[in-house]
Amino acid sequence: MKRLITVFMLLSLFLINYAQKFDQLAKTPPMGWNSWNKYHCDVSEALIMQMADAMVSSGMKDAGFEYIVIDDCWQIARDENGEIVADKDRFPHGMKYVADYVHSKGLKFGIYSCAGKLTCQKRPGGLGHEYQDARTYTRYGVDYLKYDWCNSSTQDAKSSYANMRDALYAAGRPIVFSICEWGSNKPWEWAGDVGHLWRTTGDIGDSWNSMINIFNQQKDLARYAGPGHWNDPDMLEVGNGGMTYEEYKTHFSLWCMLASPLMAGNDLQNMTPETKSILLNKEIIALDQDSLGRQAVCYRDNGDYQIWIKALAKNEKAICLLNKSDEKKSVMVDYALLAKANTGRRSGPAMNLENYRVRDLWEHKDLILKETSIFVDLLPHTVKVYRFIRK
Ligand code: GAL
Q1: Yes or no: is domain 297-390 CATH 2.60.40.1180?
Q2: Is 203 a catalytic residue?
Q3: What pTM was computed for the model?
Q4: Annotation marks residue 148 as catalytic
């Protein structure tokens, strides 16, 4: 009996200490919009409300984008009680007003702070105010918190983030917790029960080199991702102007293959038809949002030419052919072999091409294959993305 009681006590201790983040959130990678990539500190109530409107009118909400997140610079000081104070010039009605507006559009509201003393833009950070801030966010109606790592001095990353996780949990409102310590302390190794997503690298820039360099750093991280806990290779640059249409297609495809959070970072009010055709490609988004929650693995790596495979629910899979080089490549693709290819951890039974149709997710057409292997031309910096769909 004594032994039973000890086991019971140990078990409850384990349960109390375990998973104090909100468990039911981010079962698929979070999708939304964040102000940073395009607007930096130029955020305001008017901008956020316009973006919420545009999220709905552009069709992005229907495509699955959900969170409107205000990044750095909404906060300006702490008052005499230590309460965080929003910039009155930019947010004259306060943050609850903005949150209510976002909610009235059927969307969710996100905000930003930092585990250090100051944010990266030297606004007040969360250090020492974690429980107070968590309660404040709950009052605002926050659904998503991005928590940065600037000015964290000698703080320990895991305990700093776990402290904020506990504060959010204690405040009681389910909030997606987005860890932004740039991969500095290998968060994939410890953040699974701390946050719902964690940045894996430094900041993305709006250029091919920056994007592909971040992508290259994701290769060994697939096993850490899954429902409720995602690797975050940073927000999207699609539509911001620094890459070509084809490069943005590649950027978006790769992020979806990686089961990355999809945070658009562009002006949603003024999107070109090209930008819309990328961000609203529901067939590509479906790979990202697949319920199995697996990140793609690299199946073949010929340097500039790679093949990536993402296992999908119902024993389907996605294949991405990637040409990183500046030259056109003509590659032999054997679809029967790709159907059989191993998809990494817990692979399902080998697939037989006969039972599947192969759909090109950018052409929005099924392939008509006379042979199972054919030559495919890949222009520089482009991808081909296929889904093997059960017949
Ligand atoms: C960086 C972060 C960016 C952005 C910026 C704001 O540390 O990685 O995504 O949030 O701070 O100052």
Answers
A1: yes
A2: yes
A3: 0.95
A4: yes
